[in-house]
């Protein structure tokens, strides 16, 4: 199927077409272009060093956190069957979903806040897609050689050397993908048990499925798709412009200084030649992992990795020109206008971020090790006992959120003469959600209304004493 349609395009250097000059030339525009492989040139520099440290740091945290334990408990572990989430020494449960919501809101506002200030630095330095892609690119360069060597290798006819290099590269990619998949599953399945069960074929079918799935996903995303994930699959690339303004720092090319571009001899004076500082070497294009030309202006494909800055600065040093032709700058700065670091949207995102951090921190610090929920039996209003007392039935649900077994004492108050008939001493295992049937009696003369308030108190002694109250209602005949 031909995916090209003719679209009239006008050369901007020529005058608009007139009846005397003839119609503009029709040129085909591809609507669906197949991916062209990008051969990224290796570059060293300040920002590349920052990326290398952040890359290995993030990879180290990903592969090590599932192995670390605190007081015998895993540092990060999501125990779905037991509905327990171990996070940095604390255990959280689905009943505390509000905390998960808070963490997600903090992440969102943090991303928005950083984007308003420094653009897509998340994409360039910390995004998992970028991290794994750079690891795969590093392996590719070590196996197949430099950019020119890789291009020659792909154009070369099949040979034993070519097949050997390609096979080794893909084997290493799959090995990294396998390690990634096993580690990911290790956050949901104890990693030490997982390795043994996988090796002895005793792991469950779902464990094998997810290891296989994430192995192929990592291999495909970081090895084959690469920039396609950033350009077509990641939603952040599409809505990032909403958070940009003329004071946002981003990777930019200075056209006032660089244009007109052109080649020249080393250390020659560009002003005498009527040229700008850009020597049109295309190094900024060759090092770009998304294959764009930063000199074309701001583009959504740019992930702010700053490799073009390192490449351009290296060229400028060799030409004995000032560095910074490509740099982190704002639109106002490029136009000679002052830039504002603090703006309304930046302050707004920052304030919302600090507010959410404070709220989540306050919730965690004041988090009770027990959740209590009291529900009155809806099967009947009340019963009269043989002693002439009014009796109500309740179900007290106790959730022990601590890491040790605890014994709780259940008492009742708030209504004169109210007493607990059932056993008020309950032992709950760590992480257990236990429902305790409870019966309360009260003399009818203490009831001024048909419905009176009653308070259940749950307390425990020990190293970490707890006291929690829960309100309910007591129903009986009107005195």
UniProtKB/TrEMBL annotation:
GO cellular component entries: plasma membrane
Domain 4Fe-4S ferredoxin-type: 269-297
Gene Ontology molecular function terms on file: 4 iron, 4 sulfur cluster binding; metal ion binding
Keyword Iron-sulfur in annotation: yes
Keyword Nuclease: no
Positions of the UniProt region annotated as Disordered: 1-24
PROSITE patterns in the cross-refs: 4FE4S_FER_1, 4FE4S_FER_2
Residue intervals passing through the bilayer: 55-77, 97-118, 171-191, 203-222, 347-365
Keywords: 4Fe-4S, Electron transport, Iron, Iron-sulfur, Membrane, Metal-binding, Transmembrane, Transmembrane helix, Transport
InterPro entries: 4Fe4S_Fe-S-bd, 4Fe4S_Fe_S_CS, Cyt_c_oxidase_cbb3_FixG, Electron_Trans/Redox, FixG_C, Ig-like_fold
Domain of life: Bacteria
UniProt-listed PANTHER family: FERREDOXIN-TYPE PROTEIN NAPH (PTHR30176:SF3)
Name of the featured protein: Cytochrome c oxidase accessory protein CcoG
Organism: Hydrocarboniclastica marina
